[in-house]
Specification:
This protein is mainly beta. It has a single domain, classed as Beta Barrel (Sortase, Chain: A), CATH 2.40.260. It has one helix at 50-54, and strands spanning 22-26, 32-44, 61-71, 76-87. It has a four-stranded antiparallel sheet, with no helix packed on it. It is globular, with a radius of gyration of 15 Å.
Length: 89
C-alpha cells in the first residue's frame, strides 16, 4: 500500500502493463490521447538512464515512472520502474 489512507497508489499496478496494453490520457477539453505500451524496464536509481527515459523521441511518447525495489532494511526504494508507450490516437 502506497497511498494516503493505506490504499494502493495510482501506479500500484504499473507492473501489470505489458506490450500492446493501452493507456488513455484525458486532455483538456475532454478528448483522449491513447498510447500503446511497448516495453517496461526496471532501473537502479543509482544508474538511472536519464537520456534514455527523458530524451527526444521520433514521435509522441509517454513515460510512466514509479519507485520499485523496496528495501525493508533502509525503508527506501532502490529502483524505478519505467513503462514506455507510443501515441496511437
Amino acid at each position: 500500500m502506497n497511498a494516503y489512507g493505506g490504499g494502493p497508489g495510482v501506479f500500484a499496478r504499473l507492473h501489470d502493463l505489458k506490450p500492446g496494453d493501452r493507456v488513455e490520457v484525458r486532455r483538456d477539453g475532454g478528448s483522449q490521447a491513447v498510447f500503446a505500451v511497448y516495453r517496461s524496464e526496471k532501473y537502479a536509481k543509482a544508474a538511472f538512464p536519464t537520456t534514455t527515459v527523458y530524451g527526444n523521441t521520433a514521435g509522441s511518447e509517454l513515460r510512466l515512472i514509479t519507485c520499485d525495489g523496496y528495501n525493508a532494511a533502509t525503508g527506501e526504494f532502490d529502483d524505478n520502474l519505467v513503462v514506455y508507450a507510443k501515441l496511437l490516437v
